[in-house]
Amino acid sequence: MKKLSKTSKKILCLVLCVMFGFCTLFAVSPAFAYTNLLLDVWQESNITNSEGVKFSYTPEYSAVYHFEASATYDSMGYVYDADNKLIASDDDSAGGQQFKVNVKLEEGKTYFFVGKFWNADRRGKIKVLLTSEKSDEVEKITVSTDYYFLENKNGRWNTDSDGKQYFDYNLQDFYDSLEIDVYFSDGTKAHWNTELSGGTQTIHGKKLYLVHNQYINHWIYGEEDFLTVKYMGAVYKVPISILKKPIYYFTANVSTLLPDKNGVCDATVAIDDEVFKTDESGDFTIRKEAGTYTATVSAKNCIPREITIEVGEKDKYVSSVGIDLLNVDINGDNVADSKDIEMYNGKFGKKYNNKIYDMNGDGFVNIKDFQSANSIYGISQEEFSDYIGEVLDLSSYDLNGDNFINIRDVSVFKEHTDNFNGYEPLVVK
């Protein structure tokens, strides 16, 4: 009897699939855990039976997707919808007897992917990759990194075409530090870093380029040097920091003096032409070479304060000294005087309690807040109605922290300002 060729066998196999509902072999079983398929990442699995390897994926956007394989043996790929209906398959489109399934997937729907060897008796490793043809216009690229190079360290000396010696920096650690976000015109965003890239530099199946030419444009201390990120026509230049000495982290806290030393969010710490911001707890972190620096600390409704910061030679230095600011500058002119007291007119009798009544944090108390206030605190409609329309940006007036604006706050103001001749010198180290 004449043996069938490989091509004839494959045709026969496909016919049998149709006749016997072959796709039902891959029906979703609650007991079987499908592996999550990751976009733009090669994933390696072992084929240990005739059913192959199985994956699931739910697209974040509609597009044409490519499901391909890399394996030692001839492979075949299948894609099923949520109803276990076979919607696409392929055998050799990737070349080298490897499959590459091209299929249109819809946003928010779950799909199932199967990779197997053409010879069902084969066992071994297979790598699969899912990419997309998303081609929306790129709005912008942003890159974040806190990496810096020490002058003439971590690299090697080289000679350029003019015979000039230059230092050629090793970029691997720098690349590992990059966090790249690509924003598309449809409002979506894609993220890239070396850990997620699987050793490749692609986003949605499109090449992302990290471009430099140290051979021609030498990176030198004191000059403006850049690494260029290119993707689909968009360009972002990443500034290169080259330092003569290592930099160290210094962390401290900024708080208000009144009423109970609350941490100040979004305060500024200015050192020469650098400005650092505090977080929601009042903490800030600076990166500087070891040394002594003069800083100006300022915040809304606070008298600015000049301090001395000593940065020690440690990887991270956390100061035990808090930086207190006198928060009595009601009108924001950087001094405490009668003009600030005048601002209290019309504020007496106002309740200030945004932590309870301003449930959505928009600075107002209205019907939008009532449902949450009622369910969490049991506040009645009648009680809550007293606060409807109240603007709750009154924290700067409540100096004694009793949630009321009255003469007691003016007394606290005068107590702390009558004899105020400036802050005492403060060295934070």
What does this structure look like?
By secondary structure, this protein is mainly beta. It folds into four domains: 33-132, Jelly Rolls, CATH 2.60.120.380; 138-243; 247-329 and 422-428, Sandwich (Immunoglobulin-like), CATH 2.60.40.1120; 340-412, no CATH class. It contains eight helices and 29 strands. The chain has helices at 6-20, 172-177, 194-197, 338-342, 354-357, 367-377, 381-385, 407-417; strands at residues 35-36, 43-47, 53-57, 63-71, 75-80, 86-90, 100-105, 111-117, 124-132, 138-144, 149-150, 155-159, 165-169, 179-184, 189-192, 202-203, 206-207, 209-211, 225-231, 234-240, 242-243, 247-256, 268-271, 274-277, 283-289, 291-298, 305-311, 316-325, 427-428. The strands form nine sheets. The protein has a five-stranded mixed beta sheet, with no helix packed on it. A hairpin with a 2-residue loop joins strand 19 (225-231) and strand 20. The longest helix is centred in the first third of the chain and has 15 residues, at 6-20. The radius of gyration is 32 Å and the shape is flat.
How would the blueprint of this fold be written?
Blueprint: H1 6-20, E1 35-36, E2 43-47, E3 53-57, E4 63-71, E5 75-80, E6 86-90, E7 100-105, E8 111-117, E9 124-132, E10 138-144, E11 149-150, E12 155-159, E13 165-169, H2 172-177, E14 179-184, E15 189-192, H3 194-197, E16 202-203, E17 206-207, E18 209-211, E19 225-231, E20 234-240, E21 242-243, E22 247-256, E23 268-271, E24 274-277, E25 283-289, E26 291-298, E27 305-311, E28 316-325, H4 338-342, H5 354-357, H6 367-377, H7 381-385, H8 407-417, E29 427-428
Parallel strand pairs: 1-3, 11-21, 22-28, 27-29
Antiparallel strand pairs: 2-9, 3-8, 4-7, 4-9, 5-6, 5-8, 10-14, 12-13, 14-15, 16-17, 18-19, 19-20, 22-25, 23-24, 23-26, 26-27
